[in-house]
# Entry
Amino acid sequence: MKILNSLVLLLFASLCIGQSNGGMWLPNLLEQLNEEEMHAMGMELTASDIYDINSGSLKDAVVHFGGFCTGEVISSQGLVLTNHHCGYGQIQSHSSVENNYLEDGFWAMDKSEELPNPGLFVKFINKIVDVTDAALAEVSDDMELAQRNAIIEENIEAIVNTAELAEFEEIEVKPFYKGNQFYAFYTISYPDVRLVGAPPSSIGKFGADTDNWVWPRHTGDFSIFRIYADKDNNPAEYSEDNVPFTPKHHLPINISGAKEGDFTMVFGFPGRTNEYLPASAVKQTAAIVDPAKVAMRDVSLKVMDKYMRANEAIKIKYASKFASIANYWKKWIGEMQGLERSNAVGKKQVYEQEFMARVNANPELKAKYGDLLNELNGLYQNLQPYAEVNAYHSELTGRNTLMLNVAYYMNRLENLYNTEGEEAYNGFKGRLLNYLEGQYKNYDSTVEAEVFAKLIQLYFEKVPGNYLDQNLMEIVGRTDSKAMAFAKELYKVSGITNFESLKTILDLPANEAIEALGKDEMVLFYKKLNAPFEEKVKPNYDKYNNAASDLQRIYMAAQLEVFSEKRFFPDANSTMRVTYGKVDGYYPKDAVYYGTHTYLEGVMEKYVPGDYEFDVPKQLIKLYNQKDYGEYADSNGKVPVNFIASNHTTGGNSGSPAIDAKGNLIGLNFDRAWEGTMSDINYDPAICRNIMVDARYILFIVDKFAGAEHLIKEMTIVK
Ligand code: ARG
Ligand code: GLU
# Structure
């Protein structure tokens, strides 16, 4: 293991300099691995300007926003910039039909108007430490997987427990390179984060789902929050006495922007990538798993859309859920097409041939890795039928119907009570009620009963008969009208279809609650639906999937060893990373070139009065007509809206700062371009582009559109 670690670090005496080939790098390793290349690409900072544990550096201005997005501090008074779609849940929760901030936007004109958001937090990274040796102590290569994992878990617990942590401080230890290395992240969270401003959706979500994942783009996808702290600048739960937080560093904003060819980097918390899969696994994703999930979402989105268009209150309720289900639905479609078009499987096969050639040429490697790929391919083949059913099942019970998801939790509660007793039951129940209360707020039983009826039919159609309860299929019926009638009745008689009655049941003494839940029609339905899955699918899915993950770890180690001249970045895992590239256009198809920047002119080209996706606010049209752009126009006299670069990003990088060669903010990452959405599996520098809101558009909207000059005054503006 030790040899491996040093290998990864020592690889790069000789780098190939020029355009980056992607990668999401650990900020604490930039000096060893990336600094030279970054300089060659135009960066004027040092690695320690980016990451330094002793004095303020760029990393001190970057936060994990709510655990799912990224944000950055842009003033000395704790102002935080993130995406509109990252603040969407908060903006939605403050909205009503009368006070519709989603529709009209929201701007606090002084600090007293800033809105608190219970449950929201931002997290800073204090330092990152390599703990591989401690995490892998006592672990040997010939161990069973379960034993290996148990020891690692204990080791990690020991690392976490030996540290002295103040309130709101944490240590998170995460595996890298598929479990070949481990890093500890020392973090500090601030739980009082208030909403300061958000443009109307006709700016913040302009183009909505039609334009989502697509370049050329014209979306002002930003919102603004503020971190509050106690009077000593320490984290504190919300209190009226809290004061604006003073950061160690905040990003200056460069209003000269960036042009084609300029260096950029994106600093944030990318969620998950899978760049080192074997060809067989990539094939499975593109041909089996993605299509199954897309098919289920096709159906549920259609139903939600119908109700949302007809009813304003339902539109608000479902806005966030719809957006998030639609988001990955569309991404998977792009990913399937991109994997095909970039010949990802073919490229992986060529890579695997090279891998095997090197392995076979060296007896020592051959003994260790000679069978590895065959075994891995065999596992994916065995996994395939179960992976397909699992995809349908998880979309049905985990994602698109709240009630089956609640029934799943009720089932877990019951199991917990039976296996671990009342105390464990009560602990879980408390957390669950807290979480579910929010979920029920955005739920309508008429809409969901129809989603349920349509999805269950598709599930029965797609999943092989031996994994289904035949009796249940008879009861639900084989026609749309029968399934609809069944669903309506089920949603009527069940006691868990509204939060109050669920709570009434759970407020009973544990044994009585379990008994009542045991008779509930929805819970009973879930159990029947789930029984054949639990018995025949899940054990096999877990068996092959776990075995595959374990071999992936070895395959990763093998790649590091066999291609020791290459530089590998660890797959994204929601930890802090830096990616860098250049502002760069691309050819989406033969003879078509996409430029790097879009302008306000393009917003007006797309304008469809009254349309729910492409309407434009009157005030913005007026500013456009009068060319009232303040300082925010480009040298060509136009207001830039979005731009693209070759930074390698993924989900979780939303809200990440795009930073120029000198360390100034020039944009806000929010999306990727359609042709390159397969970059989570196969990054291709020719067509993979991240999409950012130009910082000048953000300032233009804040200043000229919203009239919130007081916010601009807080910021550090440079030219
Ligand atoms: N595709 C972007 C991301 O993955 C933006 C999503 C929000 N926008 C939307 N229209 N749903 O998060
Ligand atoms: N919109 C994505 C997010 O929410 C970022 C775009 C991507 O997936 O690259 O994190």
